[in-house]
Amino acid sequence: xxxxxxxxxxxxxxxxxxxxxxxxxxxxxxxxxxxxxxxxxxxxxxxxxxxxxxxxxxxxxxxxxxxxxxxxxxxxxxxxxxxxxxxxxxxxxxxxxxxxxxxxxxxxxxxxxxxxxxxxxxxxxxxxxxxxxxxxxxxxxxxxxxxxxxxxxxxxxxxxxxxxxxxxxxxxxxxxxxxxxxxxxxxxxxxxxxxxxxxxxxxxxxxxxxxxxxxxxxxxxxxxxxxxxxxxxxxxxxxxxxxxxxxxxxxxxxxxxxxxxxxxxxxxxxxxxxxxxxxxxxxxxxxxxxxxxxxxxxxxxxxxxxxxxxxxxxxxxxxxxxxxxxxxxxxxxxxxxxxxxxxxxxxxxxxxxxxxxxxxxxxxxxxxxxxxxxxxxxxxxxxxxxxxxx
Length: 390
Known about the structure:
- By secondary structure, this protein is mostly helical.
- Helix content is 80%, strand content 0%.
- Helix 11 (209-216) crosses helix 12 and helix 16 runs antiparallel to helix 17 (352-389).
- It is globular.
C-alpha cells in the first residue's frame, strides 16, 4: 500500500533531515494521519458517486505532487505542508480498494479477500524498511521520494486505464442523516467500540515509535532495527491473510467476526503489556509480534462492509477511517508528548521508563473496550438461553 510505504519512509527522511524533538517528529509524521482523516468523508462521497477508478486516479496525482514537494522541502514548515498533501492524496487508497472488493466480491468471501488486500499493503510497508536502507546507500533520500512520486503517478494511470467501471447503484444523497445512519448501525458501533482504539494504536505506533523504541531502549544497531522492522512488516502479510482465513473458518462454525476480533485485541494488548513490563530478552520478538497480532484490527473493515448496503459501503468505510486516522494522529503525536516529559541523554535517546509510560497509557486506553465487549456478551448469554428454551 503506498500509504504504509510513505509513512515509514517519510518518518525516516524527516528524522535524518533535521534535528527534531520527539514532539516535532510526532507532529510531522502524524500530519499525514490528520490530513488523511480530514479527507475521509469527501472521499467516501466521491467513491459512492463516481467509483474507485476515477477517484483514485485523481488522488494519486495529488499524492505524487505532495511527494515531490516533500523531496524538495528544506524547512520544517515546507515538509509539514508537503506531508499534509501526501496524506490528502493517499487518503483514498485503501478505501477505494475496499469499495472495489465490496462491489465485486461475495460477502462471504470478504474476510479473506480483504486479508489479501491488507497483505498487499504489508508488501508496501516491508519495502520501506530494508529496501529503503539499501537505496539510501547509493542515493540521497530526496531521490527516494522522487521515485515514489513517479510510482504514484504510474499506478494512478494504470488504475485509470485498467480498472473496470463499477455497476450503477442507487446513490443516496448526502446529508447528515446518512452519516447518522452509519454511526447508529449496531455493527458499526460495536466494532468501533472494541477495535477502534487498538487500530489507531497499531497505525500510530508501528509507523514510527516501534523503531525508535528498539533503538533507544533496546540499543539495537541500525542494521538490526531495519531487519526487525522488515520482519514486522512481513508479519503483516502473514497476519492479514491468516485473519481472513480464521474469520471465515470461525464463521462456518457459528463464531461471528466480532468475537474473533475480541480474541485478537486481547492478544494485542498482551503484547503491549510485555513492552510495558520491560521484558528486555524478548524485545525483538515483541516488536514483530506487535505488527503480527496488530493486523487483527483490519477486521473492522470486513465487519462494516458486510453490515452495510452497497450504496453506503464507501461512506461507511470512510467514516470508520475518519475515526481511525484521527485517532492515529492523536496516538502518534501524543506518544511523542509523553516521551518529552523525560530528559534525553547525550545521544538524544529517551529512557526506558519514558517508553514504558507511553505504552502503559496505550494499554489503559484499550482495556475499557475489551471490558465493555465482555460485559455486553455476558449480558446477552442469559437472554439467548431463555429465548432458546422457548
